[in-house]
Fold this protein.
Amino acid sequence: MNLCPLEAQCSSSKMGLGLSFSAMAMVYSVMLFGVYITSSQQGLSCLDWPLCPNGFDLPSEKYFFEHYHRLMVVIAAGLIYATAIFAVRNAKPARNTAIIAGIVVSVQIVFGMLVVNTRLEPLLVATHLSTGIALFAMTLLTFLSSYRLARNNQQSSTL
């Protein structure tokens, strides 16, 4: 039994739901990794930005966590930008929060660079962590809007 006769609409809302959830999950993972790096005093283990001295190669043990934190940021940013593009084209209810998340992740990347370049200036570290929380909030709101849209599309298709 096909629960969604407007297959394109359901497929689109499922895609938005998947993208927004993936972006939110990656942001949360990046935050956890960042907290670990901060709490274990490894924030300056890799002073080169954006890449550690090993470039794109597998990192040595010394740079492992910082290298993967930065790699995860690239993946999270890509998912956030993809979600924003998708929302602009296909998911009006999630559009505003997705666009804001795209802007905030760009600002967050700049703050991350400044944190490394200023050797953990406390005000910048606090700003970087606070901006990460705001970014998570935007991805959560985008996911909730996408979920509501997918649920409404599913319900309207069964009527």
